[in-house]
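HUMAN: Mind sharing a backbone?

ASSISTANT:
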Amino acid sequence: MPDAIRALAAGRPVPVRNPRGVRPWQHVLEPLGGYLLLGARLAPGAPDRAAHCEAFNFGPRHEDARTVREVVETLVAAWGPGAWEDRSDPAAPHEAGVLRLSVEKAWARLGWAPRWSFEEGLRRTVEWYRAHAAGAGAPALAELCRAQIRAYLER
C-alpha cells in the first residue's frame, strides 16, 4: 500500500507484479483489535487465561478476499487521478495465487471478527494517506488516527 500511494501521489502509475494474486487485505486496525483482545484474555487474573496461550490469526472475512488488481483499481478510484500498470514478469520466482488466513479459531474462541469491510478499510486507509500527502502535521494525523479508532470501536 505505501508504494502504491507514493506512486499515486507522485503522479506515476502504480506498478503491479501479480494482478491476479489474491491476498488477505485488511485495515491495520483489524489485526491490532484482535491482538488487543487476545492480550486482554492473557492478562493476569483473566478467566481461562491458559486456554488462549497459543497462536491466532486475525484476517479479513473470506468474502472480502480481493485480487491485487481489484485492490489497486479500488485504491486508484478512491485516490482520484491515477492509473496502474501490469509489471508481471513470467521469469520471476513463483508466488502463490491465493493466500488466505484461517481465522475461524479467533472467531470461535475469542469472539473476534473483522469490523470493517474491504471497502471501508480501504476508504479509511486512503483518508489517512491523503491527509499525510496534503501535509497534515503530526497533531492532525494523530487526531485522524484517534477518530478512525473511535469509528472502528463503534462498529
Notes: The two ends are 24 Å apart (CA to CA). The chain is about 50% helix and 5% strand. Residues 128 and 144 are 7 Å apart (CA to CA). The mean pLDDT is 94.
